[in-house]
């Protein structure tokens, strides 16, 4: 397996573009997570949940997990390579999106979240960095480190400050409604170019979230303003998507007038942007990262197909 380039990094490890030369010459995204960091930050259950959930789902709007394995130092997740980069990068370059683009991305995200909720999976980390764009312009949701199967409620504090729902901050228990709150934040950011609740100090972000006070720019038409306000209700019992009509209340909102939801589900809507890729292993849509020797796969493993690797186990990650 040829380790080509870093295409992402996080608290616990890195994501690499790799090529499986021996098996089929295909390209994958290989997520390498350092065991010591996972244990230090008490994230063992989250990592195991991520594996279980990705193995349980089957949606064209969610990245595919092909295999997991481990050695003494790292956990590895071999995943689908999505070459178009992050929605975050597109927003960074364009600053904000026009209405047709926002409708397209929001529609596919809504269908993806609806699918997860049908399996009682709460995603809990919806943000531009976790929305990838495939080579054909459609979206793929990635990074399920905070996702969890929730039948009733859960109390874990997790997520990104700007996208956290009020009930997560207050620690009173939360459910699927948190994903619709995050959709409201994401839609605001796509339209305005920045999130509605922002501050260098996370504590001040939390205060703004709990206040629920929204200021809209001139980029919002009446329908967009109404939709975002209804998604960002501090009281989740009044939040769109969490009412009696469920997700259909969102789909039937005037902002999405004219959207054929069957076509959305079948990925037949025309994407507003197609990544300008030169080849299937093109990485130009991702940021450049300094390569760290610490995350170099051992040479003796480079010549092996990941499908023939022997798993090594320890008591904590025995089921990974």
Question: Could you please describe the fold and organization of this structure?
Answer:
By secondary structure, this protein is an alpha+beta fold. The protein folds into 2 domains: 2-83 and 278-308, 2-Layer Sandwich (Phosphorylase Kinase, domain 1), CATH 3.30.200; 87-265, Orthogonal Bundle (Transferase(Phosphotransferase), domain 1). 32% of the residues lie in helices and 15% in strands. It is built from 11 helices and 9 strands. It has a 5-stranded antiparallel β-sheet. A two-stranded antiparallel sheet has the order 6-9. A hairpin with a 3-residue loop joins strand 4 (65-70) and strand 5 (74-80). The chain starts with a strand and ends in an 18-residue tail after the last helix. Residues 299-313 have low confidence and may be disordered.
Largest sheet: 5 strands, antiparallel
> From the alpha-carbon coordinates, what is the Rg to the nearest angstrom?
20 Å
Q: How helical, in percent, are the residues?
A: 25-40%
Q: What's the CATH first level of the largest domain?
A: Mainly Alpha
Low-pLDDT ranges: 299-313
Write down the oligomeric state: single chain
In terms of structural class, how would the helical and strand content be classed? alpha+beta
Short description:
The protein is α+β, with helices and mostly antiparallel strands.
């Amino acid at each position: 397996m040829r380790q080509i380039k870093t295409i992402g990094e996080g608290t616990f490890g890195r994501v690499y573009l790799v090529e499986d030369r021996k098996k089929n010459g295909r390209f994958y995204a290989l997520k390498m997570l350092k065991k010591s960091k996972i244990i230090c930050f008490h994230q063992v259950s989250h990592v195991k949940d991520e594996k279980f959930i990705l193995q349980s789902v089957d949606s064209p709007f969610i990245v595919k997990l092909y295999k997991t394995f481990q050695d003494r130092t790292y956990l590895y997740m071999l995943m689908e390579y999505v070459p178009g980069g992050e929605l975050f990068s597109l927003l960074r370059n364009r600053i904000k999106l026009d209405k047709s683009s926002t409708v397209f991305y929001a529609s596919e995200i809504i269908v993806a979240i609806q699918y997860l909720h049908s399996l009682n999976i709460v995603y809990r980390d919806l943000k531009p960095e976790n929305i990838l764009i495939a080579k054909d312009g459609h979206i793929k949701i990635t990074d399920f480190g905070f996702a969890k199967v929730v039948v009733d409620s859960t109390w874990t504090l997790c997520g990104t400050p700007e996208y956290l729902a009020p009930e997560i901050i207050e620690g009173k228990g939360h459910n699927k409604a948190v994903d619709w709150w995050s959709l409201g934040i994401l839609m605001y950011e796509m339209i305005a170019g920045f999130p509605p609740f922002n501050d260098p100090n996370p504590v001040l972000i939390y205060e703004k979230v709990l206040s629920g006070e929204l200021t809209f720019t001139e980029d919002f038409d009446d329908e967009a303003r109404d939709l975002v306000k209804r998604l960002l209700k501090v009281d989740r019992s009044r939040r769109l998507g969490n009412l009696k009509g469920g997700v259909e209340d969102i789909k039937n909102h005037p902002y999405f007038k004219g959207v054929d939801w069957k076509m959305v589900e079948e990925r037949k809507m025309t994407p507003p942007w197609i990544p300008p890729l030169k080849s299937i292993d093109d990485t130009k849509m991702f940021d450049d990262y300094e390569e760290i020797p610490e995350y170099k796969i051992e040479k003796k493993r480079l010549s092996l197909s990941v499908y023939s690797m022997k798993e090594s186990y320890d008591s904590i990650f025995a089921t990974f």
